[in-house]
């Protein structure tokens, strides 16, 4: 098994030892007690409590390894997972998503961001908790199948009388077992106050602050092994008042949680910000107290040198969403320059309605290709792309001490990719085989805290086809609910 830990040297034939839900050791097979000279490269040892057919009901005790011919010296109770021909990486971290949008894919296919939003808002206003739960199960299942063990979700529409939409997403994440960072979004500035969204989808400031505090109190778990952390996330400068941005930051810092919003995604946004606030987007955020190590922004496509330097100086992070930015014609973010100047960048698939079935593993390739298209062939390497999808994402979510690398003491969130199948095996470098591939290498195993989420390319915590069926159900239900409200949907698929 080839181990790419992201931090530290790569190991051509290595092992990863797991105890409880954490990594206990990483090293070459020659250092592992009990390894034999005739061992086969790629075995994975994982002594499990209550494992069934390779899936774990709880955390794993044992070791994931490379060449394991036999276990000795008290290790005879280990359950072995053969990782021959696999690449081991940290589980991928998705730092920007709108899971509810799984139900509205394909709308406004040829639109700018603002055109796409205007075409979508009234459809989204019909969503209920059932739509959100099913869409989240589909979206998170799709992410897990692309090697993702941790995902954020920015949910910012809360139509009245439609159930607990925030809790519906949490329920889906718990069922799947993925590590979840839901961000309680909000909008308080509708069209009547100069905002972009229609008034029907915005909330009052006092309602937003109360509901956000309630979501944190009900769901946020700050523990090291947490699978659920809540962030505070007003939607964007063109849908949120300055008062909400300021009070949201105060609430988040009082509660000890992180801040997230969209920023500098398009030139339309920049023009609107200049017209209404008199400054560019990053200047506006700085004025409102929204720069700092507890903040990460989505997109940040249109940044000046000064903007990037302020991000680096303050520890402010960015979630790069290359497919969505390309789909909406927003532009190409200056990722290679951001990294060179010391700013942190993670990856995000963005909402499925603006990226249609995008995989997080595929976003590594998109990020690499977009940067090279803009800056040349050395702009972003395969290993830098992998770091964006792992450690960069972990930093954005404030989880760099727990996630993002394969190191002793970190949580056992691990992806095993088959790089020995007929096509991938022709690529000399396993990391290149993962990042450059147009078709993702088969996912042999995905662990979150030692628990198996995916095995041999199939979901294990839920029925494999249940997530896909849930997504189709959410799509049908949302369109029906929208039609019931008098919103025509058939004409919204193209601008």
TrEMBL record:
Matches recorded under InterPro entries: Amidohydro-rel, Metal-dep_hydrolase_composite, Metal_Hydrolase, MTA/SAH_deaminase
Ranges of compositional bias, category Low complexity: 34-59
Keywords in alphabetical order: Hydrolase
Keyword Kinase: no
Pfam families registered for this protein in UniProt: Amidohydro_1 (PF01979)
Region described as Disordered: spans on this chain: 30-59
Amidohydrolase-related domain boundaries: 88-450
Gene Ontology MF terms: hydrolase activity, acting on carbon-nitrogen (but not peptide) bonds
CDD domains: ATZ_TRZ_like
Name listed for the protein in its UniProt record: 8-oxoguanine deaminase
Organism: Nonomuraea cavernae
């Amino acid at each position: 098994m080839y181990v790419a830990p992201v931090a530290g040297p790569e190991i051509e034939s290595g092992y990863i030892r797991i105890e409880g839900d954490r990594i206990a050791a990483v090293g070459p097979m020659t250092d592992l007690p009990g390894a034999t000279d005739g061992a086969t490269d790629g075995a994975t040892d994982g002594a499990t409590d209550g494992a069934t057919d390779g899936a774990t009901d709880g955390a794993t005790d044992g070791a994931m390894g490379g060449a394991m011919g036999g276990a000795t010296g008290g290790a005879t109770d280990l359950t072995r997972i053969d990782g021959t021909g696999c690449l081991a990486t940290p589980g991928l971290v998705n730092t920007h998503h709108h899971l509810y949008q799984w139900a509205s894919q394909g709308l406004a296919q040829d639109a700018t961001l603002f055109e796409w939003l205007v075409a979508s808002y009234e459809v989204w206003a019909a969503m209920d908790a059932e739509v959100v739960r099913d869409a989240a199960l589909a979206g998170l299942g799709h992410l897990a199948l692309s090697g993702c063990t941790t995902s954020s979700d920015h949910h910012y529409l809360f139509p009245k009388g439609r159930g607990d939409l925030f809790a519906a997403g949490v329920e889906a994440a718990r069922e799947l077992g993925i590590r979840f960072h839901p961000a309680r979004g909000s909008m308080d500035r509708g069209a009547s106050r100069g905002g972009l969204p229609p008034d029907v989808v915005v909330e009052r400031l006092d309602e937003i602050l109360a509901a956000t505090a309630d979501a944190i109190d009900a769901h946020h778990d700050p523990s090291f092994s947490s699978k659920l952390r809540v962030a505070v996330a007003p939607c964007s400068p063109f849908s949120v008042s300055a008062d909400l941005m300021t009070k949201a930051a105060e609430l988040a810092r009082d509660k000890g949680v992180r801040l997230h919003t969209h920023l500098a995604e398009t030139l339309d946004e920049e023009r609107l910000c200049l017209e209404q606030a008199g400054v560019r987007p990053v200047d506006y955020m700085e004025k409102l107290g929204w720069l700092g190590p507890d903040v990460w922004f989505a997109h940040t496509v249109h940044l000046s040198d000064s903007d990037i330097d302020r991000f680096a100086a303050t520890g402010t992070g960015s979630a790069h969403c290359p497919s969505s930015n390309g789909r909406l014609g927003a532009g190409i973010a200056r990722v290679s320059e951001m990294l060179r100047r010391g700013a942190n960048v993670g990856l995000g698939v963005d909402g499925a309605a603006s990226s249609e079935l995008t995989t997080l593993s595929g976003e590594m390739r998109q990020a690499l290709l977009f940067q090279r298209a803009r800056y040349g062939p050395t702009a972003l390497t395969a290993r830098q792309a992998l770091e964006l999808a792992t450690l960069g994402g972990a930093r954005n979510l404030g989880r760099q001490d727990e996630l993002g690398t394969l190191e002793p003491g970190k949580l056992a969130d691990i992806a095993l990719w088959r790089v020995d199948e007929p096509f991938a095996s022709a690529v000399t470098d396993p990391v290149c085989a993962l990042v450059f591939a147009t078709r993702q290498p088969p996912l042999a195993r995905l662990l979150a805290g030692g628990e198996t989420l995916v095995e041999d390319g199939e979901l294990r915590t839920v029925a494999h086809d249940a997530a896909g069926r849930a997504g189709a159900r959410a799509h049908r239900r949302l369109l029906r609910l929208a039609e019931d409200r008098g919103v025509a949907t058939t004409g919204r698929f193209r601008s």
